[in-house]
Input
Amino acid sequence: DGGITQSPKYLFRKEGQNVTLSCEQNLNHDAMYWYRQDPGQGLRLIYYSQIVNDFQKGDIAEGYSVSREKKESFPLTVTSAQKNPTAFYLCASRMVGGTGELFFGEGSRLTVL
Amino acid sequence: AQSVTQPDIHITVSEGASLELRCNYSYGATPYLFWYVQSPGQGLQLLLKYFSGDTLVQGIKGFEAEFKRSQSSFNLRKPSVHWSDAAEYFCAVGARGTGGNQFYFGTGTSLTVIP
Output
């Protein structure tokens, strides 16, 4: 079945450590996105990419980094520079053009100890 | 600036009762409009979408929504709520055109269903 796979589902990190969240899609979508979700704040865009080897900052990119070396993969690194990294992270993808709706993964919950 | 407002943070309804979740948007042109549902600890699932044509759109799980251009609204409705509908609901606006890079989400409405 086609879809988006995020891993790990749960992740614990000590302060000062970088962590990488994986996002893989087999939908052949061009664009991929990372959102952060905090209670009562909806979804906030971290980074997005419309094509391989290209990506743009979203509204809250500070303390995060991404890469897009393959069409199907868009990993997110939460660096030690992110001051409040504990959150639920959602990866999404869409076909550029067409109906354009976002398809979401199941999310990754990061907790900083 | 583009924005989406969901004025109801939390709604409680009885099972079998009707439901309406409100969504208002601010956008320079006619946008793409979406409703998503999220169960606790899960990703978002698309309920329905509006792009053009008939302003009343049908979605999955018995939901429907009506686009009202004059009111900049896209309210979600269901005639009879089931206990399994308890979840968080998000309204979203998407930019048209080939750019279409960004979506704007409301802050969500949490639905509780009581027996």
In short: The mean pLDDT of chain B is 91. The two ends of chain B are 41 Å apart (CA to CA).
